[in-house]
Amino acid sequence: MSRHVVVTGASSGIGAACARAFHANGDRLSLGARRVERLAEVVPDAFCHQLDVTDAGSVERFVAAAVAANGPIDVLVNNAGLARDVEKIAEGTGEAWREMIETNVLGLLEVTRRVLPQMIARKTGHVVVIGSIAGHKAYVGGGVYCGSKRALQPICEAIRMETLGSNIRVTSVDPGMVDTEFSLVRFRGDAERAAKVYTGTRPLTAEDVAECVAFAANRPAHVNLDTIVVMPTDQANPQMVHRQ
Length: 244
Hints:
17% strand; Rossmann fold; 9 helices; 244 residues; 41% helix; seven-stranded parallel beta sheet; two-stranded antiparallel sheet; alpha/beta
């Protein structure tokens, strides 16, 4: 029996790869992103709807439309997120900090709080959170981004405790360096600077991460993969990368 899988931030990168992985599994998809025009290219027969996770009204409309189109939500992949700039704490202006916290933390909460009650009522569901190695290890210029990803760990832990006995699974998939539009977004469209992040090394692909997500979601109902940390072989921590 196919599941209804919701993926946020599904227009590119890890979100798009997750959508394709679940589609290959035969699941029904509801995809959300700010760049809604790109969603139809990801999985042509998926339900697509505009979604800005920082806008509570947008989240409410998206979840309602997804349920109306595909029924109760079985799997929620909280992928929408970003890094912006590499400001040291003493040099930050606050604008990029607010954007990261509102997207990565509050945005995830806005979506999850609208989906969880349905799962609790049905006593089934799986919440997947796309975290980052940055949530485990800080680095210079990434303090606020790392903090926003670190915040997801206690949020996931709390959800597990608060839903215990409801047959709800919660998984955090925390990748290291992944070659997506992540750095292009961080550096505000500077393609040359973004490309240098991956030069001479072998980063993960979005499909590598999506494979971890799909693996966790396809375990038997009594098995919950709590946290998956997946790193490129060429990376030891956020700032230690082997380059040819």
